[in-house]
């Protein structure tokens, strides 16, 4: 999560990903291609990490992993999108902590 926060806080990445998001918002075909080729593979990698957390008892074994990802990443995206507060390692840690508590066994 810290690496994701660092990427979104990087000015060069910020410009690129804002441009990509603008295009995706206005082009359904591009959005579908982005989802298929980039977003879904990344989500699967994230879910694999969450499954590891389930196996060691950090997350409830019955937790809906799609929902866990949304709870974890949506606040980060919202903060980034609206530039409402800084993206910091402490913020990343707090998102992980809150998510783990919300979906703990």
From TrEMBL:
Entry annotated with the keyword Transcription regulation: yes
Domain Tetracyclin repressor-like C-terminal: 1-98
Domain of life (superkingdom): Bacteria
UniProt entry tagged with the keyword Cell cycle: no
Pfam families with a match to the protein in the record: TetR_C_11
UniProt keywords, alphabetically: Transcription, Transcription regulation
UniProt-listed SUPFAM superfamilies: Tetracyclin repressor-like, C-terminal domain
InterPro entries (alphabetical): Tet_transcr_reg_TetR-rel_C_sf, TetR_C
Stated name of the protein: Tetracyclin repressor-like C-terminal domain-containing protein
């Amino acid at each position: 999560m810290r690496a994701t926060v660092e990427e979104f806080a990087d000015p060069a990445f910020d410009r690129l990903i804002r441009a990509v998001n603008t295009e995706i918002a206005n082009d359904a075909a591009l959005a579908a291609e982005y989802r298929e080729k980039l977003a879904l593979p990344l989500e699967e990698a994230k879910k694999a990490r969450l499954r590891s957390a389930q196996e060691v008892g950090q997350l409830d074994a019955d937790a809906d992993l799609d929902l866990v990802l949304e709870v974890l990443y949506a606040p980060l995206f919202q903060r980034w999108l609206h530039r409402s507060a800084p993206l910091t390692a402490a913020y990343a840690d707090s998102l992980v902590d809150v998510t783990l508590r919300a979906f703990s066994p």
